[in-house]
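Quick start: what a row looks like.
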Amino acid sequence: MKLWSLLFFALFVITPLCADDVLKSSPTKTPMMQSFDDLKWSTLPERPTMKFAILTGDPQSGPYTQVRQVPAGTSNPLHSHNSDLTNVIISGKWYTGADEASAKDFGPGSVVFMPGNWVHVSGCRAGSDCVFYQDGKGKFDFHPVATKPST
């Protein structure tokens, strides 16, 4: 009897819930396909040598996705962001870490997740500009940190 109850529950309760999510997920959404050559680049106000191209959302007010271009040799000293950020490196050699000594290099295809409020350094190694896809879970911000706080 327990087996039939479990099957009934799975068939008539869980399955419709899952099916409802599938039906809601995409039929009314429009696909977004963007060629790199057609990106609309803007200069980052805080860092005029860096460029960004917004794909979805708005980094000035909330969640967003964008492509970033950072010149080779750029160094971002200790800083944090309020929201979680995920970067997928497309080209160049991006680095990040809790400090310069522990920073690791990430080449094309690498994924870097940075939780909100994580104090870190980052930048693009010399040799080639860095391009990466960025998914921000909230408004983009940049908070310089004078010294690394003790834990």
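That is the whole record. The domain at 41-144 is CATH 2.60.120.10 (Jelly Rolls). The helical segments are 2-25.
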